Amino acid sequence: MNRHDGHIHTPYCPHGSRDSLKSYVENAIFQGFAAISFMEHAPLPESFNDPAPTKDSAMTLHSLDNYLQDCERIKEEYQEHIKILTGLEVDYIAGYENETATFLNQWGPRLDDSILSVHFLTLDSRSYSCIDYSKDTFQTFLTEAGSLEKVYQCYYNTLIQAASADLGAYKPARLGHMTLIRKFQNAFPRKFSDTAMIENVLETVEKHGMSLDINGAGLYKPDCREVYPPKYVVETAKKRGIQLVYGSDAHTATAVGQGSGVISPWIHSDL
């Protein structure tokens, strides 16, 4: 039996599908999962301007209470069949730590689980880029940074900031898809090694007692074709004693469990 899919999105995701919560749960049960975590993108800070061209990175604050209530209802409906955890994927945005901590202090008591992810990068704390939105937005940030290595350094340094940040008592305990910067690696091939950068992130994750989201979505991205993070990083994390939690990062009901056949032999995910 698959133990836990710890990263599933919902119809509340503006850039996802309209598949019902029930359809996600039913597919998880069909695949033999004992537990799932709904991890919808938390509302962005009100003063932050979503840099994604379509302005659809996260649910609105207006939708949040409905999302939490719907999760509670589906938990009760399926309590005899599967354990469902209510969660949020929270964006770490450099310079917005206070707003994020205030948000978590308000809503954290209603959460069972959460992930801290980096999607937005900045070079000057004034303008931000949604680094995984498209190859075009990646190229724009690359041009601004001056080199691909600097883009990677910016991303991994931001992950270190995220893991180190004081976001209060409800700070997410799990770091999301830590090699998301490789989403377009086949379109923008590296001529350098990012191993030392990854080691620095793992050291910080270990220091702060965080776990890692081992995310299957990258396997299905045509310019990535690997798990976020890949197996050798998973093995290094295991040696450090870092807890690993599989996540499909499903944005459709049919994507629940994606990559689990590859990842499950690597890790054992506890609740």
From TrEMBL:
<dbReference type="GO" id="GO:0005737">
    <property type="term" value="C:cytoplasm"/>
</dbReference>
<keyword id="KW-0028">Amino-acid biosynthesis</keyword>
<dbReference type="InterPro" id="IPR016195">
    <property type="entry name" value="Pol/histidinol_Pase-like"/>
</dbReference>
<dbReference type="Pfam" id="PF02811">
    <property type="entry name" value="PHP"/>
</dbReference>
<dbReference type="InterPro" id="IPR004013">
    <property type="entry name" value="PHP_dom"/>
</dbReference>
<keyword id="KW-0368">Histidine biosynthesis</keyword>
<keyword id="KW-0378">Hydrolase</keyword>
<feature type="domain" description="PHP">
    <location>
        <begin position="5"/>
        <end position="215"/>
    </location>
</feature>
<protein>
    <recommendedName>
        <fullName>Histidinol-phosphatase</fullName>
        <ecNumber>3.1.3.15</ecNumber>
    </recommendedName>
</protein>
<dbReference type="GO" id="GO:0004401">
    <property type="term" value="F:histidinol-phosphatase activity"/>
</dbReference>
<comment type="pathway">
    <text>Amino-acid biosynthesis; L-histidine biosynthesis; L-histidine from 5-phospho-alpha-D-ribose 1-diphosphate: step 8/9.</text>
</comment>
<dbReference type="InterPro" id="IPR010140">
    <property type="entry name" value="Histidinol_P_phosphatase_HisJ"/>
</dbReference>
<comment type="similarity">
    <text>Belongs to the PHP hydrolase family. HisK subfamily.</text>
</comment>
<dbReference type="GO" id="GO:0000105">
    <property type="term" value="P:L-histidine biosynthetic process"/>
</dbReference>
